[in-house]
Amino acid sequence: MDSSLRSAAKNGDLRFLKEAVSLQTSEYFLTKTPKDELGGLGGNIFHVSAWSHQEDFFREAIKLLPEHDLKRLLFQTEDDFRYTPLHAASVKTDASHAIVKLIIEFYNSITQATNDVDDDVRKPWLALTHDNRMPLHLALKDDKENEPCALELLALDADLLSCTIVDDHGCTPLFYALQNGFNQISEKILMSPLPFASIFRDKDGLTPFHLAHDCSDNIWRLLFEKCVDYMDKTDDQGFTVLHLWAEKGEAGPCKLLLESDVFGELKTKIFTKLVYATENKMSDTPMHMAARKKQSELAQIMLRGYQQQQASVVTAENQEPVSVECPPWKIKNNAGNTPLHTALYVGSSHEEFALQILSIDPLSCQIRNNKGESPFFLAVMSGCARAADEILKIEEPRFDFLRRNDGQTVLHCLPSCPENIGRKLLEKYWWMINLTDDSRKTALDKAKEANVLWLVNLLTNPSLIQKERFDWIAACKREETQAVLAFIDHCQDLQRACREVNDTPLHHIKLLTHQDYVNLLQISSIKELKNTTDHEGATPLHRALERKDMLLAKVLLLDDGVERTIADHNGRTALDLLAKLCEENDDWENMCKNIKVNPYMKTSYIRSGTNLDQIRNTLSVVAALLATITFAAGFTLPGGINGTGEAVLAKKASFLVFLLADVYAMCTAILVLFCLIWSMVSEPDMARLLVDRSVFILMQSLYGTLLAFMTGIYTVVAKSSLWAVILIFVMCSIIVISAHRKILHYVIAKFIPASSTNAERQDQMQSLEEGNAGPSLARSLARNDTSRNVE
After folding, report:
1. Could you tell me what percent of the chain has a pLDDT over 70?
2. What is the CA angle 519-520-521, rounded to 5?
3. What DSSP letter does each residue of 106-148 carry, written as one string?
4. CB-CB contact of 87 with 133 (8 Å)
């Protein structure tokens, strides 16, 4: 193409056009310009004027050039993209509509003049470019300002309404119309009675539902009617239409479905199937996507739609809703986040959606993500005060809900919380103040880093916090070991706290390893509680054996300070329970053998932790003394001996009783000495048993000695002074009866006033230890302890 002609077409130079028509031949105008010469698209003069928006030049050229030249020029394709002037005019320009009309008017004029139309000019609006695009494709490719041009093309041919021509991008005209918001075009195509296009997916797997944007309600209804089979299709990224709507904020179609009474099958598909669909990258469901994109309205519509569908699905017999194990708001993505987690991550701006989930399913607050973050933790971290408060109303969060995998607790997140919520959490979880995260930072360190003055002040002065009571018994039952250990570490008066509830953490706590229990018992406040009884009279060893906690039982059995013979209210000692377990399970019996504990051995007088050496020394002295006395009494007989060396009273019954009692006392005393000797070289349990039995045998020796004394007196005095004998018998009998331990304790407490005050308190403490004390007594003792501390 001549450069002057190209310049005239580009700039709209009508004067040059008129001169050229009068001076040049047809071949001059039929030439083309290549693409690179213009720095854009090339072609003939009509291409160039169309690219350059020169409507007047285009019109004047049609008037001046002969018809046979116009047929060739107006329907000629340029070499690079095979665009005709109609294609070029269909691309959005200010003059597009006018130029398109000029081409159509010329086509109509030549078709009306003759029925014999050349093949190369037949229906130019159906001509295809190199990428298989018609002019209608190009007219719809841009924004809605080009809609008049598209309507002009669509009015030319009814076949365009059902056009199935797909360009190389996999799109039909309907796709472009829906994607760019050409509502009139979309409505005309969708309402056409002609056979509908069968191609509903582009090369990326997108359907009209994926592409539709800013559409009217009527267009959505038409799509729901005609394209229902494509509603559940996904694109190459695994996105369903719900994912796309969530990403674009298209709440309209979901709302339309929810409020409609017509599309029952489609509603079921959307709200019971597609809400569970996950995309390929993060496995996000549409609810995740809506939460992340802050599309609260759409997220809440999906929730209501799901509930509506579940309410409508009923059983045939009892008309009750069918239960669902995992509703869509509990589905986790690859990060372990549910839609509730995602909504709370966004912050308070999306809190309504989170609150709606909590109102529908309160138990959803119990789910943790891969980082160990619970919804409560995220609510505190993101400053969602209402969500945090709502979760606290639902239930008391477990300790693992208060702490994530890196060790940070909710108290570490308080700098991002409102002060009122922060104070409330400090009052509730004061016992976590000293807990550190993996970087060894406490909540105070985080508060200082964030320079939150009110928080720094409270954490620096914990006495300013109004502390709520920590239910450590419930925490133990929930196996929240770390929480209980934190409470033990932070509690300044653990014994008092235990007395108030007549229980101890050691009765309930469950740890993972043997060493954990060893470390626990090394804590001074816990060590003092190892023999304390609860309200049922059970010691920690009782409870460990009852729940078959072999690790704790082993640690307690190896501790010499743990008493094994305390009986609970049912009369069972820890050894009774251990013996039963050994009979039922060989593992327990093997454990007892390994630690050299005899579960069948019971002691009555010697408790675990008793200093055996001290008792052994005392018993040996008493036994030796009794053996000496009774041995001597055997040779200094009452009544003496006759000349032949025989006892004078040998045939008297009382003398024989004296003699037998004396021998019994001497033999038992000597037996005690033997037991004590063997106890020094025996195993600890056997040594304890021998010493315990020595106490009983020594009591028998004492009884024998008293009986020998009484019968000896009777033998020599009865005939001369019977009243004295009777008095002696009464006195000795009182001693024998009073020798019983319980009777002796009672007599001393009753008849020795100096010890009555202390004895009363000791009885109260003993009742508390045995589990017989009521709450009032426990509180009374606690108040007395407090008053003493004050004094």
Report:
1. 84
2. 95
3. HHHHHHHH-S---GGGS-GGG---TT---HHHHHHHS-GGGHH
4. yes
